Amino acid sequence: MIIIVESGADKQTVDNLVAKVRSLGFTPHPIFGVEKTVIAVVGHKTQEKIDILETMPGVQQIVPILRPYKLVGREVRADQTVIEIADGLEIGGERVVVMAGPCAVESYEQFSQIARYVRDAGAQVLRGGIFKPRTSPHDFQGLRERGIPVAKAVKEETGLPFVTEVVDVRDIEALHEVADVYQVGARNMQNFALLTELGKVDRPVMLKRAMSATVDDLLQAAEYVVVEGNANVILCERGIRTFETSTRNTLDISAVVALKRFSHLPVVVDPSHASGHDWMVPALSKAAVAAGADGLLIETHWRPQEAMVDGHQSLTPSTFDQLMDELPAICAAVGRSL
Ligand code: PEP
Ligand code: MN
Question: Is the CB–ligand 1 distance for residue 155 below 6 Å?
Answer without folding.
Answer: no
